[in-house]
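User:
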Amino acid sequence: MSKDVKSVISEFHPCVNMTPKELESWLKTEESQSVGQKKDDDESIGHKSGKRVIKPRREN
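Assistant: Predicted structure:
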């Protein structure tokens, strides 16, 4: 069964412990950029995921 986008976003928001602004600021720090598993380039997998998380958080 597929959920509509609004349902997914409303379920997602309570699970996130940072605001989009806080997450965006964190992702810019040296500490954030220096940790995590890296594959094929200099940015970690988790760092890339963090960038993708910001977008749906801002849409609501």
